[in-house]
Specification:
Number of strands: 0
Helix content: over 70%
Distance between the termini: 39 Å
Low-confidence stretches: none
Structural class: mainly alpha
Number of helices: 4
Mean pLDDT: 97
Order of helices and strands: HHHH
Shape: elongated
Length: about 130
């Protein structure tokens, strides 16, 4: 169960990284760009941490990852991001309760906290647009 959720987390982090990179291009406002850049840099870090954890547990990496369709409207994408970030935080909380090895705790805790922070950032953006 934990490994399957970890695979899903890797896929989601990969897809979100690319989605937010597209989202970044939809605004010239440095304030919103800073919010989006912060999120996509975190997503890349989560992806890398989770791939390392997956390798430690299985001896392989998750392959054949898919991107989401590109972001075309900043407000709509911010709205969707809020939901997905909150769902991610919830999944990581559940995974924390199932960790098979102590080394899984730190990456899950960091990602759970960051996803909540991203939801706040995107909520602020959505409400201001």
């Amino acid at each position: 169960m934990f490994i399957e959720k970890l695979q899903l987390a890797i896929q989601n982090e990969y897809a979100d990284y690319h989605f937010y990179k597209d989202m970044y291009k939809l605004t010239n406002d440095p304030y919103w760009q800073g919010f989006i850049q912060h999120a996509y840099e975190d997503e890349k870090s989560h992806y890398e941490m989770f791939q390392q954890l997956y390798y430690m547990l299985t001896g392989t990496y998750v392959q054949s990852l898919k991107k989401k369709p590109p972001c075309l409207d900043l407000k709509t994408c911010a709205k969707n991001a809020i939901k997905e970030e909150l769902e991610g935080a919830e999944m990581y909380k559940e995974m924390l309760l199932q960790i098979p090895v102590q080394q899984a705790y730190a990456p899950l805790f960091v990602a759970m906290h960051d996803e909540t922070e991203h939801a706040i950032r995107f909520s602020t953006m959505f409400n201001a647009l």
